[in-house]
TrEMBL record:
GO-annotated cellular components: cytoplasm
Coiled-coil positions: none
Phylogenetic placement of the source organism: Archaea, Methanobacteriati, Methanobacteriota, Stenosarchaea group, Halobacteria
Name of this chain's protein: Molybdopterin molybdochelatase
Pfam families: MoCF_biosynth (PF00994), MoeA_C (PF03454), MoeA_N (PF03453), PBP_like (PF12727)
InterPro entries in alphabetical order: MoaB/Mog-like_dom_sf, MoaB/Mog_dom, MoCF_biosynth_CS, MoeA-like, MoeA_C_domain_IV, MoeA_C_domain_IV_sf, MoeA_linker/N, MoeA_linker/N_sf
Keyword Protein biosynthesis: no
Compositional bias ranges of the Basic and acidic residues kind: 304-316
Family matches, as SMART domains: MoCF_biosynth
Species: Halopiger aswanensis
Amino acid sequence: MDRKEFRDLASPAEAREAIDSLSLTAGVERVPLEEARGRVLVARLDAELDVPGFDRATLDGYALRARDTFGADEADPARLELVGEVHAGEEPEVELEDGQAAEISTGAVMPDGADAMVPVERTDTAADGDEVLIRTSVAPGDNVMFAGADVAAGERALGPGTRITPRDIGLLSALGIDEVPVRGRPKVGIVSTGDELVRPGEDVDSDRGEIYDVNSYTIAAGVEDAGGEAVLYPHAGDEQDEMERILREAAAECDLVLSSGSTSASAVDVIYRVIEEQGELLLHGVSVKPGKPMLVGRLGVSEPRSDGSEGERRSSSGDSAYVGLPGYPVSAMMVFRTFVAPAIREAAGIPEPKATTVTGRMAREERYGEGRMRLMPVGLVTDGDGDTLVYPVDKGSGATTSLAEADGVVEVPPETDYLENGESVDVRLFSPDVRPPTLLGVGEDDPTLNRLLDRLEHPRYLSVGSRPALRRLREGVPDVAVVAGPIDREVDAVELGRWEREWGLIARAGNPKEIEDLDDLIDRDLRFVNRTTDSGLRTSLGAAAAEIAEDRGVDRREIVDAIDGFDLGLRAHESPARKVIAGDADAGLGLRETAERLDLAFAPVGTQPVRIVANPDRTDKDGVRDLERVLADADEVATR
C-alpha cells in the first residue's frame, strides 16, 4: 500500500477557509417552549398581549380615585366609604364612584373607577368598619402596575439571533408563547477508527495494545457544547471496506461527519483514501501542533439501484461535510476546539463562549444606600476603544425584562453607598457564552426601528422613551439614541438618520364615535388613552394642545384638563390602541402604521421626525457602522 506523505501543509487560515467552504447548515425547526432553552431564534417575536394583561395593585391596601385623596395627610385624613374588597385571581365585583374605596390585595385587578391605590400602612379603618381613613395623598397611577407596563402588546420581545436563556423562557411564558422558530441543531456523526479501540465498559486486552475509545465521548461532549446533536457510530477498524461502510452510513444521516484516527501518513492509516474515492478531499495536513494530520472534505453517499445494488455516488449537493481529526485525544480535541467547534456554533447560531466572570468599568454613577447587599442586574457594552462598560438594568422586581435585558449580576456590598462612574466592577455572567451586544440603543418605541434592528447582528435596544434616551446618551452609556418629536435640549451627538411618522388618534374600526381631531376630545365626552411623558408622541400631543389653547385664547392647562384621560399614559406605541380594541377607551394616541396593522380607524393630527443619533465617541464602532449601512439601505430613512 502506498504511503501518504505530508508535503505542503495548509496554514490555519486555509484550514478555516476549507471548513467554511463546506457550508454547514442545519435548517429551521419549530420547538415547544420546554425544549427551547439554548436554541437560537430565527425570527423576531413580538408581544401579542400586554404583561400584565390588566391594571394591578402592587401592594396590599385600598383602591380609590386619586382625586379623593388630594390634600389628605396625617393631621387631616380623607374619609372614604369602604364598598368591598378585591383579591388576587378574582374579577372585581365592585365599581368605585367618588368618595369610595375598596380593599385590595397585592397583584389583584384594579376595579373600575379606581386609578390609584394607597398602601395599608398609610390608612386606618373607622370603628364601624364602613369607612377607611386615608392619611396621605396619591396621584393617578400611584402603586399601580398598568397593563403592558412590563411588556406591551406589539412590542419587540426577542429578536432573531437571540439564544434563548431561562430568563427568556420566563418572558416567552409570560407572553403565552408555547412554540418558537429556531435554528436546527447540526447533526454530527462521530466515528472513531482503529482496531485497537474498545468501548468503555468492555474488557480491554493491554497485551494486544487495546485502549479505550476516548475520542468518541469527548468529541460528542464538545459537539453538544457547541450546539450540535452528537450521534455515536460503532468504531471502525483499519480495514478500508468497513471504514467506507460506517462513514457512508454516517454521511447519509448527518450534516457533518467527524472521524478520529487513521489520518496520519502511515501505510495503515487509509481514511484519506476513503474520502478521495467516496467524496472530495479538500485538505490533508495543517501546520499546527498538535493536530498536523487533519482532513477536510466532503463525503458522498451511494444511492442504491433499483435491483438493490449500490449506484454511483450522489451529487455534491447531497454530500455531508467531513473533518478527520487526529487519533490522539489531546490532538483531536485541540483541532476540534480550534477549527470544528466554531463551524458548529455558527451553523447553530451560538456565539463563542467566554469566561463566567468579566471585569468592566461602570458606565455611569449608581447610587445605593439601603444597608443591604445588592444583586444588581447589569448589561455590558463596549466603548469606542473596545473596553467593557457596565450599566445597571433594573425595571423593578416585578418586571421580567429586567433580567431578559441583563448579562449578569454585580454584587454590591451593604456598606457601599454608590458606585462611581468609571469604577472597576466584577460581573458574574448569567452564562459563559454571554457577550456584549454589537450595538446598544435606547429611546423611542417605533415599528420602523424594529425592522431596522432585525437587520443587525446581536443588537440590544431598550425602549425607554425619548427624554430618558437623551439623558442616557449624555451620560455616555448607549451607542445610539432614538428620539421622536421636538427636543427641548440639544445633546452632543452625531445624527445617523431620520424618518417621518404620522401620528394622531386611533379609534375603533369603522370609527363609530366619528372622531376626527383633537377638538373632539376636548369638546365631547370621550375617554382617551395617552402615552407616558417620556414618549415623543406625548410631547407632540402637548405641543398640539398648546396650539389649540392659543387659538382659543385659553390656558393650555384648561385644554388638557378637558381631555378625559390625558394625564394617564401607557408606555409602548401600541398600548393605547389595545385599550381601544378592548373597549376601555374611545380613542388613543398612536401611529397610522399601528392603526392600519390592527385594522382600526385613524384620525391624523400631525407628523413628527424620528432621529437616530450616535455617541460621538462611538461613531467608529463596528456596530454603529453596521447601523449606518442599514440606514443607508432603508428606503424610508434619510441619512446624513
